[in-house]
What we know:
The protein is α+β, with helices and mostly antiparallel strands. The protein has helices at 13-25, 55-58, 68-74, 85-99, 122-125, 128-143, 155-162, 178-181, 195-203, 209-214, 217-224, 226-235, 266-287, 319-333, 366-383, 407-410; strands at residues 5-10, 37-40, 50-53, 79-81, 106-110, 113-117, 147-152, 170-172, 252-263, 289-300, 305-316, 339-351. The strands form 3 sheets. Strands 5-6-1-7-8 form a 5-stranded mixed beta sheet. Helix 11 crosses helix 12 and helix 13 (266-287) packs across helix 14 (319-333). The radius of gyration is 24 Å and the shape is globular. The chain starts with a strand and ends in a 10-residue tail after the last helix.
Amino acid sequence: MKRVIYHIDVNSAFLSWEAVYRLYHLGAQRDLRDEVAAVGGDMAMRHGIILAKSIPAKKYGIKTGESIVEARQKCPTLKLVPPNYHLYDQCSKAFMELLRRYSPDVEQYSVDEAFVDMTGTESLWGDPVLTADRIREQIRDELGFTVNIGISENKLLAKMASDFKKPDQVHTLWKEEIPDKMWPLPVSDLFFVGRATAKKLFSLGIKTIGDLARADPVMLRHCLKKQGEIIWGFANGVDVSVVQSEPPPNKGYGNSTTIAFDVCDASTAKLVLLSLAETVGARLREAGVRAEVIAVGIKNFDLSYASHQMTLHNATNITAEIYQHACRLFDSLWDGTPIRHLGIHTSRIKDGFQLRQMDMFDDTDYERLEKLDGTVDQIRKRYGIDSLKRAVFVGSRIDHMGGGISREKRSVDYTKIKVD
Length: 420
């Protein structure tokens, strides 16, 4: 039986979801998607990048991920709206729930895109292209935003197809269509070919995906190692990955934060690390796992980055222990340069139950600390994360549960914003 895989991608997701909410819930008269508009972070909080842009904004050369300053230089009249991640999370959930009406095999690839295995559903839903059109129209009519749907027999080709002409389109890319539809595209359009890899391929005279497909795989492996072999297979439409409706276990847990001001003293930096240890520890405990490796990363005011890591004698998910090791790493890493960004990351994840190797020189009551963390987690889950905080954070500019999506982006007070 021929496999049928959809890749469904929301068009300009954050901007579309913001536009729909403003139109249907706040009474807006103008659609952000028709304006030169973008969703952007808060420059005062140093999250000043473009997160999503409209099609009219794209015509000015505005790109997702560039700074607001760069975008304003290209278009001084660019309309910027603040991000509302709580809203986007709700929209994403509604999007995924609609897809599961058509197939139980839905793999959420990101907040705004998913793979759907539709193999064998023709007897239920009919022709794959007509079914995709039905899904596309249903999303537009019920949820208010548009999507692109790519159809093929594997995930790679389906994803490539969904990136063809936008918005609100359905495209196929069956293997027999590869020479006409995919090979003429620039090699930089191929999945897994980043800027650095594209530059190397250009130096080899490989300009299009077709050039890559026809290249000598031995030469590619010699020049690009294992990646050369992989992208040669991708260029020829080879992909054996399957749609995973259940996400694989996390290989690591971490959190980081861009601080609203340059940190120039160790005590403030360690307060930030404590707030990150709170969130990382809570995530590990919620997943029922422990981490054996802890790393701390520092990005300085000049955007230079450095990190150190250490392997623990005992895997842990205890906040105090994570913080203690993070501080040791920080002390060995920081040279006094003003800090812009801090992060704690963990790896070598173990299951939750693990015997702790005793140390005769360590009199820490780890059982007590575990019970304390468990009680704190229960209180915060029931009454909110702000229901309990350490005294050291009272009156501080540092959020006691730092990292991830900052508070100013979790929700938006629309009464303070002009919605027209």
